Amino acid sequence: MTDAVSCASHFHWVSFARSDAGRVRDINEDACLDEPAHGRWAVADGMGGHAVGDLASRLVIDKLKQMPAAANLTLGLAQARAQLLDANRQLRDEAVQRQVQRIGSTVVVLLACDRFCGYLWAGDSRIYHCRQGQLRQLTRDHSQVEAMRALGQLTDEEARNHPAHHIITRAVGATDHLALDEDAIEVADGDVFLLCSDGLSNELSDADILATLTAPTPLDCRRVTDELVNLALARGGRDNVTAVVMRAEDPHASDKTLLNPTY
Predict the structure, then answer these.
(1) What sequence ranges are listed for the domain PPM-type phosphatase (predicted)?
(2) What is the pLDDT of residue 261?
(3) Residue 99 falls within a domain, yes or no?
(4) Average pLDDT, the chain
């Protein structure tokens, strides 16, 4: 794709992405998309063994790169969904050809359009949103442990340390029918988003992430991304680690510190 999306973002976006194999694994089965000029970012975490996990995540990201221009956010999300459904079909066919049970990948996708960001996901890769020193996880893991936590069967701490935390219930390529969750958020000047694989979120607490994302202003996306990945590696780096950090800058905004001190 060579042209910017038709639904231009109201904001100027600055972003940076980094992916690392980690301290234990030889192959990096994560992949990511970082296209601020097109207003789209994604993380995919492949699985399946036999050197096919990286194939799955690359296919997912390649499909998202091929998205056509969209006139609005609703259409953009629909196109992303269509690309992921196509990736799902291809991965199901690939598994049959390779005679393996499944070749799959998690996915989180974030699209910027006008004053909004829309996002969709499957699996346990995450999107975090940071505004005015407050961190919120926008996605909810599609995993057995998250389902138990949501039902009150596990505390947050028990869920974090549960031995089955890696068992996910949705992924691109896992089944013939791909279920994707979708939502949107209105963006404000200075908002920061983090897309990451579980290799990062399993090693870092929300407090770790918040402290890094709220480092001295103005936020340097490259430095923050490196700090997040390096911290996950220092904590053990037991899985592939991927982070994509982006910041929204309103080029039309005047000094909000003077105009609206409470913002």
Answers:
(1) 14-248
(2) 38
(3) yes
(4) 91
Q: Report if residue 153 sits inside a domain.
A: no
pLDDT of amino acid 3:
36
26 is in which domain, residue-wise?
12-140+169-253
User: Rounded to whole angstroms, how far apart are CA atoms 251 and 121?
Assistant: 29
3-state SS track over the chain? CCCCCCCCECCEEEEEEEEECCCCCCCCCEEEEEEHHHCEEEEEEEECCCCCHHHHHHHHHHHHHCCCCCCCHHHHHHHHHHHHHHHHHHHHHHHHHHCCCCCEECEEEEEEEECEEEEEEECCCEEEEEECCEEEECCCCCEHHHHHHHCCCCCHHHHHCCCCCCCECCCECCCCCCCCEEEEEECCCCCEEEEECHHHHCCCCHHHHHHHHCCCCCCCHHHHHHHHHHHHHHCCCCCCEEEEEEEEECCCCCCHHHHCCCC
- Within a domain: 241: yes
Number of domains in the chain: 1
pLDDT in tens, 103-141: 999 999 999 999 999 999 999 999 999 999 999 999 999
What pLDDT digit, counting tens, does each position of 218-260 carry?
789 999 999 999 999 999 999 999 999 999 999 987 655 433 3
